[in-house]
Structure formats: C-alpha cells, structure tokens
Design a protein that fits this description.
about 0% strand, mainly alpha, 9 helices, about 85% helix, 2 domains
Length: about 210
C-alpha cells in the first residue's frame, strides 16, 4: 500500500491514466486498487479534492472511454469474428455470440453500465456493442456515464476509507487472489472437459470399431 501511495504522489495522474487505459485494453493491471489509493491520497492531501480527486476522476474516465472505444471499433470492424474470438472459450461459442448481440439489442447502454462492475465481462461488453451495431454516439454517451460511475466508485472508496486504506487494499488483493484461483480452477476444469469431450469420443469410436471387427 505504501509503495502504491508513493507512486501516486510522485506520478499522480499519469499513472492513473496509463494503468487504467492498459487495464481497459485487457492488460491485467490493478486499475481499481490504484483508484482507491488515489482517492485515499487525495483526502489525505490539503486541497486534494480539487488537486487530485476530481482530476483523477476525469483522467480515469477518459482512459476507460479510450480503451473501450478501441474494443468498440474492433467490434464494429470485425463483427462476429471478434465475438467468436472472445467467445472461443465459452461452453457454447455460438450461443455466446448470438446471446451477446441479443443482450445488447435488448438492454443497450444498461448492459454497458452493468458490465463495468463484472470482472471479465467488462472487456467483452464494448466489442459486443460494436458487433451488435450500437451507434457510436449512443456507445460514447453510455460508456462515458458507466466509466465515470465506475471510476467515482473506487475513488470514493479510497476517500471514505482513507484511514483504513491499507486494510482495504489487502482485502481487495485477497479477493483478487481468490477470484484468480477460482478462475484458474474453472479454466482447468473447462479445458479438461473439452479435451475429454473431443478425445474421449474418439476413443469410444475406436473401441466400438475394434469390438465389431
């Protein structure tokens, strides 16, 4: 926590922008904990609300929109192909693509807002909006709102719990490690199932062929 705080004081808004933009592009960087630190440091600094908190909100929102915009343009450009790539590891890739487009068609901007707060889904939402044909104006308005709310949430958490910031970050880190472990187990199980589903069927066919020979 102290290392992050020192980085925030020294590099400030540049760090917020770079990390948030990279995270939105899909790089696994701790954008949310960094915003929590920024909020806590802002409240611990005289005049920090105007000098750091509000600028951090603006910078984080801009980085979110830029990162999401790249994914949105990719969705508009490559359509179903990029959704097929993103849904490749789904249990049902075809229904993932069709269901994603249907979700955007039904809920539109609401889906973008909700997806911001669901790890993993947030990266898929922007290209999904592009592939579903959402207009650039509608996407920009809804994504800007969602990005501002997302950024404000973590900055506010840091401001409110500035005294307990170390404990809060430890909790976020522990939760992240637990989620990562669960995700790793889930992926391992998924790949094992896919392997068995594909190769197990071949083994059964070979066994039946030997039995009838």
């Amino acid at each position: 926590m102290q290392a992050l705080s020192s980085l925030m004081v020294e590099y400030g808004l540049t760090l917020v922008f770079a990390v948030t933009l990279a995270a939105r592009a899909g790089v696994p960087l701790p954008a949310a904990p960094l915003l929590v630190v920024a909020g806590g440091v802002a409240m611990a600094t005289p005049g920090g609300l105007l000098a750091l908190w509000l600028p951090a909100l603006a910078v984080a929102t801009l980085a979110n929109v830029l990162g999401d915009g790249l994914w949105y343009l990719a969705g508009r450009r490559y359509g179903q192909r990029i959704m097929g790539l993103l849904c490749r590891f789904s249990l049902s890739p075809d229904s993932c693509v069709v269901g994603g487009a249907s979700l955007m068609a039904r809920h539109g901007g609401g889906a973008l807002l909700a997806a911001k707060f669901v790890p993993g889904v947030s990266v898929v939402a922007a290209p999904m909006a592009g592939a579903a044909g959402m207009s650039s104006r509608r996407f920009l308005l809804n994504d800007t709102l969602a990005s501002a709310l997302w950024s404000a949430l973590y900055l506010t958490l840091g401001a409110v719990f500035s005294r307990q910031l170390g404990t809060l970050l430890d909790g976020l880190a522990a939760a992240g490690m637990a989620l990562a472990a669960l995700a790793a187990l889930g992926l391992a199980g998924f790949f094992a199932w896919r392997w068995w589903h594909r190769h197990g069927a071949e083994v059964d066919d070979d066994a039946q062929g030997l039995g009838t020979a």
